[in-house]
Amino acid sequence: MLSLEDKLEMYRKMYLIRTFEERAEELYMEGKIWGTFHLYVGEEAVAVGACSALRPDDYITSTHRGHGHCIAKGADVNRMMAELFAKDTGYSHGLGGSMHIADVDKGNLGATGIVGSGIPIATGAALGCKLQKNNKVVLCFFGDGAANTGAFHESVNMAAAFRLPVVFVCENNMYAMSFSVKKAFAIADISERALGYGIPGAGVDGNNVLEMYEATQVAVERARRGEGPTFLEARTYRWKGHSKSDAQAYRTKEEVREWKEKCPIKFLGGHLKEEGVKEAELESIRKKVEAEIEEAVEFALKSPEPTLEEARRMVYV
Amino acid sequence: MSDREITYAEALREAMREEMRKDSRVFLFGEDIGIYGGAFGVTQGLIEEFGPERVIDTPISEIAIIGGATGAALVGMRPVAEIMFFDFMTIGSDQLVNQAAKIHFMFGGKAKVPMVVRSPAGSGTGAAGHHSGSLESWFAHIPGLKVVAPSTPYDAKGLLKSAIRDDNPVVFVEHKLLYKTKGQVPEEEYYIPIGEAEVKREGKEVTVVGYSIIVPRALEASQILAREGIEVEVIDIKSLRPLDTETIARSVKKTNRVLVGYEPPRFGGFGAEVAAWIAEELFDYLDAPVVRLGGEEMPPPYNPNLERKIVPQVEDIVREIKKLVG
Ligand SMILES: Cc1ncc(C[n+]2csc(CCOP(=O)(O)OP(=O)(O)O)c2C)c(N)n1
Ligand SMILES: [Mg+2]
Question: Residue A314 falls within a domain, yes or no?
Answer without folding.
Answer: no
